[in-house]
Each structure stands twice: as structure tokens, then as C-alpha cells.
Specification:
The protein is of the alpha/beta class. The protein has 19 helices and 12 strands.
Length: 601
Amino acid sequence: MSAKKKFAGIEREVPEHAKSTVTRLFSYLHGQRVRLTVVCISIVIYVALSIWNPMYSAIVIDHLWQSVQAAWQAGTPFSVTGAMGRELVQLTLQYLCTWLFYYLQSYLMANVAENLVLALCSQIAQKLHRLPLRFFDQNLAGEILSRVTNDLDKISEVLQTGLLKLIVAIGTIIGSLIVMFYYSVPLTLLFLVFMAVSMVVTNIVARKNLRCAAERQETIGALTGIVEEYYNGRDVIKAYNHEAESIQKVSEAAEANRQANQRADFLTNCVNPLIRLLTRLAQVVIAIISGKAMLSGTMSVGVVQAFFQYVNQTAEPLTEASYMINSLQAALASAERTFELLDEAEEIPDPVHPAVVERAEGRIAFEHVSFGYEPSRLLMKDISFTAQPGQKIAVVGSTGAGKTTLINLLMRFYEVNGGKITVDGIPTADMTRSGLRNNFGMVLQDTWLFGGTVAENIAYGRPDATREEIVAAARAAKVDYFIRTMPQGYDTVLDNEAANLSAGQRQLLTIARVFLCDPPILILDEATSSVDTRTEAEIGKAMKALMHGRTSFVIAHRLSTIRDTDSILFMEHGSIIEQGDHKTLLAKGGAYAALYYSQFE
């Protein structure tokens, strides 16, 4: 099998097909047209008010200044009643409306973004169920989950804030600059010079920050991988006295992550003070020039303060433009990776009119089966054998010979490249996967228990089983006594790793799970490899009773456990090189005999 690889494009921060990604992303928004329409209207009104408010404030302040001067010259008390009061009330209402429409667009856009992410999450969840086992074998599970969660979070965040800010910023900047040119062309050009310098600095820092952000993500992934690996292997690390070396490697990875975080945080935090410094310098120069203009009477007090309002609401969006664009690019790259996952090749669909086998008799046949994880590199060629109902078939061979692959093909975890596999004469390809797998019970060497009670874990294959049936299955698997010694017996809650159980106890529970399902066909992949000799003997007796009348496939490394099988398939390099019962193969003196005698020298 090919080694696991990182998911395609995992480190990409810029989309390769931006136009098609945007088109596809917005196709998910068709059902939210009403909300988007209200958002667009709110943005237009908000931008219009943001441009109009400073202009109207110039009029109000000029009138206010004139009223103050008139009252001072006449020696009368100053009052804001009448027209002056109405103007102040109107200005206040305009600011309130500006806030209202900003809140409305932000709230609705957050709603749109979360609905979009929910739709993508639902599609991804369904997609993961339809992806073939090949995909999960070739990609790291942690990377897939990380990409799914992080990318969707990034899409949501940018839609809620980045995209909204960019649209508002563009409208506000254009409108503000038009009014600023109307008030004073020289002051506006001076302001744009300072802003051009700020944008150049910001763009340089933003590009470096993007590289640092990618480096930070890479170091976080490396650190997480090391910690997860060492946590899972903690017993082995302690057994071989590698604690110091492990701590050293974790420390080195943590230090690399710290340095990457430091560089990224420095670039993120240093640019704003620098840009604000340039903006303040621009304001100082503009203040000096506008002060002279006020003294000469070419600009009023209201116009000057309005001009400064436009400077403030234009400067920051201009300097943040590079960050906004980079965040949008990163979000599009995230969307592109999400769509790549959604476009992954799926399992071959189940037939429209499938063959139904309610409870198989157990006749299994491989007819000239060929298979390869890559079609151009076949692992198995022309595999043929037949298992009659009730027979016990052992599959043996060295590691990597293809034993587990043979079982995976039987269960349709993988699709064959040639030939066919039949159950009771019906090709498995003509059956639904669920219908096929309902006839099988599996006990794997690597046990899996989920977070839940002991009873729930045993009843995983039959959730509707009664407590009596669960207890009967546990007794058959020789695990009932052990369960009753636990704090709450069958209601004892296991964590998702069942760390409080030994490997043998975990495997006994999975064996009880198969007893409860009572399937017509059994697959045992080193089912007793983690139990002691006495327990193995007891389980062997129970298994013998369970396998009576059922077709059973046993993958075994200890050949002493398969001497009573009806047929032995000896595999090597993906091919069955010997078939027959134990006595026949020993008499033949071939590969099986050599392996058997090597275990009993």
C-alpha cells in the first residue's frame, strides 16, 4: 500500500482557480438571496451615511460656530434651540441610523456565513461516508480533519468580517476621496502621498506575514503530530527509557513553533503602530496647512473637522487593504481545498436494483480476482478459491503477503480490478455494501471501542438487543465475570480509548460484539492475539461452537491455531501459492510446511 500523504494543496495559501472557486462558493448562497439583498441594501445605506455624516457635520458645526460668535459678540446666552437644535437632533439620528445599518449587515452576514458553513459541513459529512477506504489509507486522518475544521472556520470568518469590510471600505474610500477632493485638492493629494507610502509598507509586511503564517501553521502541525505520537506511545517510551529524548524533541518542536509565532506576531503587531505614525504625520501636516487656510478664510472650521473625519475613515481601510486581500485569498484557498475534498472520487454507487441476501448460506468464491491499490500496479493477480458453507478457511503468510487485503476485498472495502467475488453465487458488486456486510462479523487484531457503556459497546452491531442477549453474548465470549467486577458492571462507561482496560479485555469485548450479532460468515483477524493462553483456549472452544455451521475466515500467524481448518490459503506477494488442509500441506513439504516447522523448532 502506498504511504500516507498529506492532503493535496494543504499548504497552499493562494487559490489556483480563484474565478471558478468564487463562482462555486456563491452558488451555495442561492437559498439566501433575501438576506443577501438586505445586506447589500444595508451596505449601500451605511456607506452613504458614512459619507454624508461628515459633510452634514461640517454644516452643523459651521452654524454652531456662527451661533457661538454671534452670541459672544451680542453678549447674550448661547442657545441650541430652533434650527440649531433640529440640526443637532438630525445629526444624532443619522449616526444612530449608521450604527443600526452596520449592526444589521453584520448580523445578517454572520447568519449567511454560518448557513454556508453548515451546508458545507453537511456535504463533507456525507462525502466522508462515500469516500473509499483508499482515500483514508492515502491521507493522514489528522490532516483531513484539520483542513476541514480550519478551512471552514477561515471561510466563515472572512465572509463575516473580511469580505464585508472590503466592500464597505471600497465604497467609503471612493466616496470620501471624492468629497475630500471637493473640499481641497492639495490636501487630498498630500494625504494620498502618505497613504501610498503606508500601503507600500503594509504590502511588504503583509507578504512576509503570509509566509510567516504558513510557517507557523507548519510548525503547529509538526508539534501536534509529535505530541500525539508520543502520547500514544507513552508506554513504549517509558519502557525504553526515552523520556529525555522525547522531551527534547517536543521542546525543539515547541521552540520552532514559538519562533514562528514570534515572527508572525511581530509582523502583525508592528505594522499598525508604524502605519498610525505615518497617518498622524499626515494629519499634522494637514492640520498646519488647513490652519492657515482657516486663517485666510478659504476653509471653515466645519469643513476642516469634516476633512479630518474623512482622513480617519479612509486611512485605515487603505492601509489594511493588503491584509483584507490576503485574507480573502487565504479564504478562497481554503474554499478551493474544501471543494477538492468534495470532488474526490467516491465509492462506486450501489446498484439501483440490488440483489438481496438476507442471511447467506456462506458459499464464498473468488473467481480470477485481480487487485492493486494503483490500477497500473497490481498486487493480486488471478486469485481463485471457493469456501463452502460452514467451512473454516485459514489465510496465512508473511507480513505484507496480502492476507488483510483479501479480507478487505471480500468486505468490499476495496473494489476489485478484475474478476469477481460471489456470496451464494451472487456477485458482491450486485449487492449493496450494507446488505453484504450484514452477513459478516469481524474481530480485528486492532480493537476499537467507543466512548459509552460496556453494554453499548457490545451491542454496537445490534443496538436493539436486550440486556439478556448482551449478557448471553458476554458469557459466550468468557467476559461476563470480568464485566461484573467493574464499578457499574455493564453500565460502566468507557472512554473512547478504553484506557482502563487491558488489550486482552478490549478484544474480549469485541468478540462478544460478534457473538451478539450472530452472523452467518465470520472474519477473525488474529482474534486471540492479545489474550493469554488459558483465555485463548476458552475462547477457542466458544469460537468452535460459534463457527459451527458458519463460513469462517481466520487470519493467523500462530499456525497451531489453524490445524483443524478445512482449508489453508498460503499467500505470498499477493498470490495464493498453496491451498489445502493442514496434513496435505505438511505432506507437500512446501512453503507452508517450512513456515510451520520454523515455529516449532
